[in-house]
Amino acid sequence: MVITEVRIKLVEENNERLQAFCSVTFDNAFVVRDLKIIEGTKGSFVAMPSRKLTDRCGSCGCKNHLRARYCNQCGHKLDENRAIRDADGRAKLHADIAHPINSASREMIQSAIIRAYQEEKERSKQPGYICTYDDYDSDFDESTSYSGIVSEMGRSNLRTHGSHAAPRGTHLRGSGDEKSSRAENSAGGFGAGIM
Questions:
Q1: Of residues 140 and 25, which shows the higher confidence score?
Q2: Bridge pairing between strands 63-65 and 50-52
Q3: CA distance 11 to 122
Q4: How confident is the model at residue 172 (pLDDT cuts 50, 70, 90)?
């Protein structure tokens, strides 16, 4: 596994510990985004991308973040000590989405990111500096898109899925519109033949 690219997005001075966001590309084939460079007590370190942990309300079953004191759905008071605690007694509130499995991999990734961060800080001092962190979409190769792959497979009669910009579906209509909804479906539109 070779790190082929590291992109850094510096965070403006805000008296917080967060110094930058970054993304890492492995073998020119796999990108991990939303890593954070954080200033710790022993220097900068890399935090892997993570998500907030949730649990369900005992009354209504709705998901809530572990820091929530009341249910987002029904307002029921939640137990504030429901989070799992580590050996030091700190609540585990986040779970890594992607992370190295051993310390050698972690050190390799962290040293490459910290090195790139230092270089990006130096570049940011130059006149005309432009951050390249958000340029992933500009180098998108259309031939590797879903429709490009399908057309290469000789099945060009398939089409890509449209956007969901406009609300649609029977769940948005009043109860009196069910018959017209079924009529639309039976006329060959979306979901034709289901009912």
A1: 25
A2: unpaired
A3: 14
A4: very low
Residues 6+ apart with CB under 8 A from 121: 10
Classify residue 78 by burial, with Cβ atoms within 10 Å: 0-12, 13-18, 19+: buried
Q: Which helix (H) or strand (E) holds 124?
A: helix 103-124
Sequence-distant (6+) residues with CB within 8 A of 170 are 177, 178, 181
Interatomic CA distance for residues 45 and 165, integer angstroms: 40
Q: Angle at Cα 73 formed by Cα 71 and Cα 76, nearest 5°?
A: 40
73-77: average pLDDT = 92
Q: Which one-letter amino acid corresponds to residue 134?
A: D
Among the listed residues 163, 162, 141, the one whose alpha carbon sits nearest the alpha carbon of residue 152: 141
- 3 state SS of 184: helix
Please, where in the chain does CATH 3.30.1120.40 lie? 1-49+97-140
| Total-model pTM | 0.60
* For range 94-106, the mean pLDDT: 91
Tokens of 117: 């961060």
- Given this structure, which CATH class describes domain 1-49+97-140? alpha beta
* pLDDT band at 100; cut points 50, 70, 90: very high
Taking a C-beta distance cutoff of 8 angstroms, is the pair 62, 70 a contact? no
